[in-house]
Amino acid sequence: MNTTAVPTTSPVAFTAPAAEQELISSLPSDFRWGVATSAYQIEGAVDVDGRTPSIWDTFCRVPGAIDNGDHGDVACEHYTRMPADVALIKELGLDTYRFSVSWSRVQPHGTGPVNPAGIGFYDRLVDELLAQGIDPWVTLYHWDLPQELEDAGGWPARDTAYKFADYSMLVFDALSDRVNTWTTLNEPWCSAMLGYAYGVHAPGRKEYPAAVAAVHHLLLGHGLATERMREAATRPIDIGITLNAATAYPASDAEPDLEAARRADGMGARIYLDPLVHGRYPADVIADLALEGVEIPVRDGDLATISAPIDVLGINYYFSQKFTGYDEQGRTVGDDGLPISRTLPLNRPRTAMDWEIVPEGFTDLLVRISKDYPGLPMVITENGSAYDDVPDETGYVVDEGRTSYFASHLAAVASAINQGADIRGYLAWSLLDNFEWAYGYDKRFGIVRVDYETQTRIPKQSALYLRDVAIQHRSR
């Protein structure tokens, strides 16, 4: 169905620098190689087979919220083109496919029984993947909360955590006989902060105390679902969560810069990792929030639930940042009485997202997590880059920037492993060009080009590079 056959070789060859090649070749022979997507970004079919609106369906109708007024109504038509997309993953030599489940497709309105037509799609997807020898990796939540649950308060409301656990069990009951690896949440930082503090993602609210409450209730939902899935499992499974994390570098050794980096790390990483692994929120983060008059709404027993043991930590990485505690006038405290925190450029090349390319930040992050949270295996569940792709007359894209990004970041992963980090696999973001949230369809992350007018899929140079690396490693 409008899928161009995967070429044997790229018309333009790519060779990674020798040092990167050497590191990549050191990756374990049993390393997991895959690709990731999310439901709202690719599925389309938003009003068929009983699916009801999510917060992203609603947010996309807010004037000015999404570039060009784009929306996910059609997206990549994956809902109808799924078998061909799975065959494409197989052709690319990848062994793992991480996908998310649409809550409002499986459980319309966010409450009540499972929707047979909705869960039926994911049932077929899992069977199709297994038939092609591809391991299905389920993500239960990738930002698309049913709109009715947002109307009832959304993630800032405690009840949403319990609703999430109920929904999770509907999916688990249907697929756990065949799915070995389960992720509860994708990037709770984005759900909480971009959605409820900064208002740039659905549902578009700008309420900082609500965002902090959302952080806690997302983690509580993770813990509740983890406990219930673990109890219901009839065979060994792996359960985890995926966090987007980065290295926060201080601009200097000056105390205000060190403090700014500490605060960024606290709200970006440790506010999630500490309760998940250690069963507590970091004391410094609690103190930082108190300066803003905000408390984390913890109840008795919550942290024991949140820290239910997990088997794998998913890490999504795109860039790192440098922080300073001084404003342009050299002040360390703002007019609001709060410490200054702002970013400074690292003076690195940037992707089309205006994100700096910092592969050593990836290594530093992974090594740091392995030391501060030992005994927790990691898988890179997203890593990739957007570029302004220029297709040739056949639609093929020579995306040397993206290909080089993959090579440098695979080398960064290998370097972390060589320094003792336990990393089991790498899933590229993303299989397809798709709906890139507030950026609409302007930003392309796919290793496969999608012509949105014809829905034709055309593997890019980066896809062929990842295929060759994966196949070479399995053949060792």
TrEMBL record:
Keywords: Carbohydrate metabolism, Cellulose degradation, Glycosidase, Hydrolase, Polysaccharide degradation. The keyword Ribonucleoprotein does not apply. Gene3D superfamilies: Glycosidases. InterPro entries: GH (IPR017853), GH_1_N_CS (IPR033132), Glyco_hydro_1 (IPR001360), Glyco_hydro_1_beta-glucosidase (IPR017736). The keyword Transmembrane helix does not apply. Its EC number is 3.2.1.21. It catalyses: Hydrolysis of terminal, non-reducing beta-D-glucosyl residues with release of beta-D-glucose. Coiled coil: none annotated. PROSITE patterns: GLYCOSYL_HYDROL_F1_2 (PS00653). Belongs to the glycosyl hydrolase 1 family. PANTHER family: GLYCOSYL HYDROLASE, LP05116P. This is Beta-glucosidase. It comes from Kribbella sancticallisti.
